[in-house]
Amino acid sequence: MISVEQIQSLIGGDAVDPSDAKIGSIGQVYLDDQSGQPAWVTVKTGLFGTSETFVPLNDAEADGDALKVPYTKDKVKDAPRIDADQHLGVDQQQKLYEYYGLAYGHDTAKTGQEQGEFGNVGIPRGRESQDDDGAGERRRDLAGEPGVKGRDTSGPTTDQAMTRSEEQLNVGTEKVETGRARLRKYIVTENVTTTVPVSHEEVRVVREPITEQNRGDAIAGGDLTEEEHEVTLHAERPVVEKETVPVERVRLDTETVAGEQEVTEEVRKEQIETDADATARQGRDDR
């Protein structure tokens, strides 16, 4: 038999069939009213776990973080629909036991009753009133005690008032990655045209008349001779050299831009109403 401690650790885990295929997640645990031991669990099946059905713990066993039951997923999904937020009564248990093929007087099918009697199974584990130390034990029923007015019709009277709760939005921010920016350096080629001044030598003939100053040079040779004279010409031409020089530094930086984003979400809250006002008005009208 699975103990309370074992089943508590499995809440929220998976219920699996004999072949370890997942049936659904474990939602609530129902304890036997008399023995206080786990008798049933609810398993959430269907799309997004929206359907919750009862499964008996008679032949179930803990398998690591999972609860293994001797039923298939289809068997569990087709179980009789019973509100998982209420006390499991005799008729409801009888219907479930018949569906799962369990005999009323079977030892492993008892729910804390003697001699095969069929009794009630308590409210879900975790929804019962707990001591301040969180031990999970039920508080004493205070109905009828001095100073306690009325009684709780949905379970033991543990308090004189209801606590109304509501959901509140706690909106914050988180930093998420939205993209990346990269610096990439690559080489492109372009044509550069520039003008360079160049010079060159050209030959020209200079004719000098015979004068007293150059007469000696002019008659130094023979009377009639054949001669050749040449001049070497020079010219400048462009010479191109390339060198790599740094021209600038480029880096990436980020800046934070502040803005506003509207958030819309549904929140639930509890409302407490009383029929005392209607009763009082009716009494006044009667007068």
TrEMBL record:
Biased amino acid composition, Basic and acidic residues: 125-152
Pfam families: DUF2382 (PF09557), PRC (PF05239)
SUPFAM superfamilies the record matches: PRC-barrel domain
Bias (Polar residues): 154-171
Residue ranges annotated for the DUF2382 domain, each copy included: 162-273
Domain PRC-barrel positions: 7-75
InterPro entries reported in the protein's UniProt record: Bac_photo_RC_H_C, DUF2382, PRC-brl_dom, PRC_barrel-like_sf, Stress_Response_Assoc
Region (Disordered): 111-176, 256-287
Matching PANTHER family: STRESS RESPONSE PROTEIN YSNF
Protein's recorded name: DUF2382 domain-containing protein
Annotated organism of origin: Branchiibius cervicis
Highest classification ranks of the organism: Bacteria, Bacillati, Actinomycetota, Actinomycetes, Micrococcales
